[in-house]
Amino acid sequence: METVTFRKMEDGTRDEYLLLQRLEKPHLAGVAKRVLRELAQQGEESMDGYLITRLEHALQGATRAYREGADDDWIVATLVHDIGDGLAPQNHDRFAAEMLRPFVREEVTWVVEHHGAFQMIYYAQHYGWNQHERDKYRDSPYFQSCVDFCARWDQSSFDPDYDSKPLEFFAPMVERVFARKAYDDAVVQPGIVRGLPVLSATAA
Ligand SMILES: [Fe+2]
Ligand SMILES: [Fe+2]
Question: Nearest 5 degrees, angle CA 165-CA 170-CA 173?
Answer without folding.
Answer: 150
